[in-house]
Amino acid sequence: MDKFKEIRPIVLGIAKKDNKILVSEGYDKVKNQVFYRCLGGGIEFLEKSEDALKREYKEELGIDIEVEDFCGIAENIFTYEGKNAHEIILFYNIKIKESDFKERYHIVDDNSESDAYWVDINEFKKHNKILYPEQIFKFL
């Protein structure tokens, strides 16, 4: 699937701890913008969204998660590095076991590397940091 030419179904997990959420840091070279996003990824054909979310956390962080309640769904049309993209996103609250808790995680995903860490939700609500997609705020 070409994520810049088709509507992409994805699932994102909202992990909360002490008024913080676990997010990965991204950078858009065209916009010269640092942004953050909850972890997750594409839902494969015939894969349930909960299973896709568990798989993505296992692949990216090497941990097992507990998928809790379904928060909602959102449509996200955006531009990343000058390319148009279109996603249908399913959001779930998730729980990370205390034994798997880290302040920072290193992610290797599809030939790219990034870090994920816990950021205070108020940093996003006060617009000190950018959290995508914007629709996530109704689930925080």
Briefly, what is this?
The chain is mainly β. The chain has a single domain, classed as Nucleoside Triphosphate Pyrophosphohydrolase. The chain is built from two helices and nine strands; from the N terminus they run E-E-E-E-H-E-E-E-E-H-E.
Q: Could you explain the architecture of this structure?
A:
By secondary structure, the protein is mainly beta. It has a single domain, classed as Nucleoside Triphosphate Pyrophosphohydrolase (Alpha-Beta Complex), CATH 3.90.79.10. 13% of the residues lie in helices and 54% in strands. Strands 1, 2, 3, 4, 5, 6, 7, 8 and 9 form a nine-stranded mixed beta sheet that branches. The longest helix has 13 residues, at 49-61. The mean pLDDT is 94.
Tell me the β content: over 45%
Strand-pairing-aware structural class: mainly beta
Which architecture would the CATH scheme give at its second level?
A: Alpha-Beta Complex
Please, what is the CATH homologous superfamily? Answer: Nucleoside Triphosphate Pyrophosphohydrolase
Q: How many structural domains?
A: 1
- How many distinct beta strands? 9
Terminal-residue CA separation: 30 Å
Q: Roughly what percent helix?
A: 10-25%
Overall pLDDT metric: 94
H and E string? EEEEHEEEEHE
Using the CA coordinates, give the radius of gyration.
Answer: 14 Å
**Name of the CATH first level:** Alpha Beta
**Main beta sheet, described?**
9 strands, mixed
